[in-house]
From TrEMBL:
<feature type="compositionally biased region" description="Low complexity">
    <location>
        <begin position="345"/>
        <end position="376"/>
    </location>
</feature>
<dbReference type="GO" id="GO:0016301">
    <property type="term" value="F:kinase activity"/>
</dbReference>
<feature type="compositionally biased region" description="Low complexity">
    <location>
        <begin position="314"/>
        <end position="335"/>
    </location>
</feature>
<keyword id="KW-0812">Transmembrane</keyword>
<feature type="transmembrane region" description="Helical">
    <location>
        <begin position="423"/>
        <end position="443"/>
    </location>
</feature>
<dbReference type="InterPro" id="IPR008271">
    <property type="entry name" value="Ser/Thr_kinase_AS"/>
</dbReference>
<keyword id="KW-0067">ATP-binding</keyword>
<keyword id="KW-0547">Nucleotide-binding</keyword>
<keyword id="KW-0723">Serine/threonine-protein kinase</keyword>
<keyword id="KW-0472">Membrane</keyword>
<feature type="compositionally biased region" description="Pro residues">
    <location>
        <begin position="377"/>
        <end position="392"/>
    </location>
</feature>
<dbReference type="InterPro" id="IPR000719">
    <property type="entry name" value="Prot_kinase_dom"/>
</dbReference>
<protein>
    <recommendedName>
        <fullName>non-specific serine/threonine protein kinase</fullName>
        <ecNumber>2.7.11.1</ecNumber>
    </recommendedName>
</protein>
<feature type="region of interest" description="Disordered">
    <location>
        <begin position="277"/>
        <end position="402"/>
    </location>
</feature>
<dbReference type="InterPro" id="IPR011009">
    <property type="entry name" value="Kinase-like_dom_sf"/>
</dbReference>
<keyword id="KW-0418">Kinase</keyword>
<feature type="domain" description="Protein kinase">
    <location>
        <begin position="16"/>
        <end position="278"/>
    </location>
</feature>
């Protein structure tokens, strides 16, 4: 049928002259044509033979096209004419100069402010359609035309392609059971063949919100994979792909809920929630920055960690050389008086000449004793390696700790005992007394 429709270029269909092809789809082909009666350009949509040959579809097509043509809204492409030309169903609508939203998304995500502006206009058009108890059923980026207003230069969005518009019924399949519409942005109830209503278009608009902020549809892959993605109810995360607030994920998930009752009640409500979620966005006039691509990430699906590409090898981590801790040399002790020969009652460690703080069993070394003797005068003390205590009984009760009496610490230049200067204080006192006595004698 595509080749047959392609032959329509240059032909006359009634009072329409076919000038060229705008786009092709599985169910129709869009042509640029001229209404020779009025001398204006139109977009002429010709339905496929499969749909045109379905009696039930033809009946609904004419009925809903008549209702749609009565809609007058600035964001709805005006429908000029419809009918049957030489056995072909057609729709004639305003020809809009510009690009569709799908071609804009081919360059990547839209700036949040721009996405909210365009989708907000689409939401207004859909709510007007829903007010007439109609459901579009084919809301997707390719059916949103973007142009510029004359004079202001501001972008203006049109909702187009009302060939599948239906009332809230389940009659959106052919008599043979073929699905009508694009499954890429279709709601679960639409895919299952259940009853549809305005909330079905709300779901599709939420999918478009995801696409505008990420640059691609929520679910990609084969037709079965796309359909399973919608039916599973696992709406992907926007903030996981681009740098945007996580609040927008809540809005998208609510709009794409598999239960129609859980979705916003209107398209305007959905876009209001999106405005609130993106209100704190940094630089909303610029497209969001993509996050780093992770290997194994599937578009619209959960991220799966990739298998290692080869055997892992241990990484040699250089180790610092071992540090030998040194025990600081204890302060030198004041010289002890020469030991006296033990008397008949002498006992304990002092009887053997071993210095120790406090009594301890005979033969038990003291942790505070200096076995190596005093250092030479003026020589700095040598540090000793920190090692295990001297061999001895392992009973903790037999250990003796040093008496916590303060001593003067030695330096690297002098190491004089405190007892060596005990005469200084008495001498100063005696000199002061003599000075006072001499003053008294002089005064007398």
């Amino acid at each position: 049928m595509a080749e047959q429709l392609g032959d329509l270029v240059g032909r006359r269909l009634g009072h329409y002259r076919v000038d060229g092809v705008i786009g092709r789809g599985g169910m129709s082909t869009m042509y640029r044509a001229t209404d020779v009666r009025l001398g204006r350009s139109v977009a002429l949509k010709i339905m496929s033979d499969a749909l045109a040959g379905d009696a039930e579809f033809r009946e609904r097509f004419v009925d809903e096209a008549r209702n749609t043509s009565a809609i007058d809204h600035p964001h709805v492409v005006p429908l000029y004419d419809f009918g049957d030309l030489d056995g072909m169903l057609f729709l004639a609508m305003r020809y809009v100069e510009g690009a569709d939203l799908s071609s804009l998304l081919s360059d990547g995500p839209l700036a949040p402010r721009r996405a909210l502006l365009l989708l907000g206009q689409v939401a207004e058009a859909l709510d007007v359609l829903h007010g007439r108890k109609l459901v579009h059923l084919d809301v997707k980026p390719a059916n949103v035309l973007v142009t510029h207003r004359e004079g202001s230069g501001a972008e203006h969005a049109y909702l187009a392609d009302f060939g599948l518009t239906r009332r809230g019924t389940a009659g959106h399949r052919t008599r043979g059971g073929d699905f009508l519409g694009s499954p890429t942005y279709a709601a679960p109830e639409h895919l299952r063949g259940d009853s549809v209503d305005a909330r079905t278009d709300v779901y599709s608009l939420a999918c478009m919100l995801f696409a505008c902020l990420t640059g691609h549809a929520p679910f990609t892959g084969t037709v079965d994979e796309v359909i399973n993605g919608h039916l599973a109810g696992m709406a992907p995360s926007v903030s996981a792909e681009v740098v945007l607030p996580a609040r927008v994920d809540t809005v998208v998930r609510r709009g794409m809920d598999t239960e129609p009752d859980a979705r916003p009640g209107s398209c305007r409500e959905l876009m209001t929630l999106a405005h609130q979620a993106l209100s704190g966005t940094t630089r909303p006039e610029e497209p969001p920055v993509r996050r780093a691509t992770r290997t194994g990430q599937q578009a619209g699906g959960p991220w799966v960690a990739p298998e290692p590409s080869g055997p892992s090898r241990p990484v040699a981590v250089p180790q610092a050389p071992p540090v030998q801790l040194m025990r600081p040399e204890p302060a030198r002790q004041a010289p002890q008086p020469a030991p006296q020969p033990p008397g008949p009652h002498a006992s304990g460690p002092h009887a053997s000449g071993q210095p120790s703080w406090g009594p301890q069993p005979s033969g038990q070394p003291s942790w505070g004793s200096q076995s190596s003797g005093p250092h030479p005068r003026g020589a700095p003390p040598q540090p000793r390696p920190l090692g295990p205590p001297p061999a001895g009984p392992s009973d903790v009760a037999s250990m003796r700790l040093r008496d916590p009496m303060p001593t003067r610490t030695s330096t690297a230049f002098t190491a004089e005992p405190v007892a060596g200067r005990r005469w200084v204080v008495p001498a100063v006192v005696a000199a002061a007394v003599l000075l006072l006595v001499a003053l008294l004698l002089l005064l007398l």
